[in-house]
Amino acid sequence: MFSLFFTHELKSFWRSANTGKTLAIKIVMGILILILFMYVLALGLFLDRILEKAQPNENLTVAFCGILLIYYLYDILLRLQLQELPTLKVQPYLHLPVKRNTVVGYLAFTALFSFFNLWPIVLFVPFILKIILPASGALAVVTFIIAIIALALLNNYLALYIKRKANLNGFVLLIAGGLLALISAGDFVWHLFSLSKISYLFFGNLIKMPALVLLPLILAVVMYYINFAYLKSNLYLEELTTRKNEHKSSTEFPVLDRFGRVGDLVANEIKLILRNKRPRSALTMGLLFMFYGLIFYTNPAMPKGFNIFVGMFMTGIFIINYGQFMFSWQGAHFDGIMVSKVKFADFLKAKYMLFTIVSTVAFLLTVPYAYFGWKIVMIHFIMYIWNIGVNTTVVLFFANRNYKRIDLSKGASFNWEGVGATQLLLSFPLMLMPYLVYWPFIAFGLQNTAYVVLASIGILFIATRNFWIGKLTADFETKKYKIAEGFRNK
Description:
By secondary structure, this protein is mainly α. It has helices at 2-14, 19-45, 47-54, 60-82, 91-94, 100-110, 115-136, 138-168, 171-188, 195-208, 214-233, 237-241, 260-275, 277-288, 292-297, 306-323, 334-339, 344-366, 374-399, 421-442, 447-463, 465-477, 480-488.
């Protein structure tokens, strides 16, 4: 039956109207993945030398065992961002004499064909054969390889389970990312425990007690059956796409009710973000970049002026990531918006409110950087004001010049749909404008004055928001037909 499913998918691919374009993309992606694997293989072949230089006073086997758990921790993080869900159009099979277990089994089986599952083999097996085989024998090699593959499969099905749960509740993905971030911070920032020691506790003893290999195997099998059971119980389309919620307000976000039509539009935008992979990845990446300051604030050699960039980036990364594709997110139903009773001014107000809400949350999450000094928090607040005042207006100005639609049904990884010259042009004013204000004052040693001017400009833009909405609405009226025509081109 699996071969029949595979044949049907091949026929669907070759009979598609976009076969040529899709095939070209797959060939390019295949070449890129092949090049990436060559780099990973080279890293694996020289891993012993890398570990020797990184930890010169440590035994190679001890150092190797210490990095394995850390690798799998970041592997699950990458999978949550980049690994695609295996898909099969199951609806035509549900009314046929095809067992549900067979359909679900095919989905679970095809999930194995991910390049993430090959990475640990290519990366770690060369080291195991070069170092562990001569020192500990063939049995240790076999147990290590089995453990590495089992942990890769555990991560594989765990990531798929989390992403499928996130399709029904977007906060699941945020919670998972937050837990991974807390685990990382607990080791590398707060030093509450050592992931390296925990990793060695298992893999170091694996050499002495090969029976420990059963632990990752059992975990992988359990995670497979959890994933299998979840898929089987949610096989029907309506069960996978609807929320089982008894209470529903007009927006499903009661706090937004008080804002009327604008609140409804913001609520719809939030639903769009949480229910679709690509916009949701912009939100998730924004939360992950809350740790961006740890890279720079712990570096004493960082120039003081770079605080402006870090503050703008952390409090406004969502505006940059999500806003650069405005209004492409609504490309599929933009014609409906054009003929609806929604005023475009309300549409813009909803965008302003969305960016303000997310940036406010981002600023609050950066408050703990007060550990490095309250001046850091002050700079973050100034750039937060700049983001919701100036950068939001700039993003919406360029949105009127974006004619490329985005298909929300497609995944987020390796997807360049909607990317064009507008996104390239947008990056320059967003990055350069605060420095064009900041550096002239710094040249005369007036750093505090520079901060005051940045904050004042941001406040001025916020206070005159209705004026800018009027200007943007008038600008949109001259370009709306060109935007709609561009969004109709698939």
